[in-house]
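re: ur question from earlier - yeah i can do the single chain one, its not a big deal. heres the input i used so u can compare w yours
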Amino acid sequence: MGKRRYELARPGLAADPGLAERVATGTLPLLVARPELERRAALAQLTAGPTVELPAERVAVWQGDAFQLADRLPDGSVDLILTDPPWGGAALDVWPRLGQLAARVLAPAGVAIVYVGHLHLPVALGGLAAGGLDWWWAATIAFHGAHPAVRARRVRTRWRPVAILRQPGSRSETPWFVDLFVTDPKPEKRFHAWGQSLGSARSLIERFSLPRQLVFDPFTGAGTFGVAAIETGRRFLGIERDPPTAEIARSRIARALAEWEEPADAG
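and the output i got, formated as tokens:
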């Protein structure tokens, strides 16, 4: 890279000489190095504080296989599933298994909201419905200034499909809602490469669940949906396969819980 460009980058790279060297020699693009620096700084700040125990009656993050651990959940015990599972390739078998899991654990009036990738959308929707849930609607999450690339189709997309399903025969009325949600100006990628928008997650939780109800995410990642659940006064249960990522989720959710205040009019 050019000398001037490297000089401009040096203040941010000073904390990591190894990363700075890779940028200086051109083996690591600066556009890749900067997000990595942000991620490392965010993780350092997150882990700098004291460890906070999560109150079991309010929130939990289990570490392990989602479908094995979900067997612990009683039938009909979840009010809202909000999740962003692996989308394609070797993960295509996730969809029917997730549909079956959702149909078992959702309460009679429960709702499943599932983020879906464009490329395997037909397979995903078919698998989810095969579990026995009723198709309800498709919402759209519009990206605020981002244009993720779907290289297999040479498309830069501005939106994310979100599938909404319900228990069959449910007589409860879903609230009126506008099916377009907009992401935060900068998507939350500091803690996980596939992190989703906190703002749109909060909006979905507020529209499809009530305070103190249980939100379940079997593919928790770094815990964005758990943070959104806590910030909206819900209970949360997450499952994450990767141990370090599960610890990040616990830390983020614990911090959100420590900063959350019960609304003044709460009963």
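Residues 1-10 have pLDDT under 50 and may be disordered. not sure if urs matches, ping me
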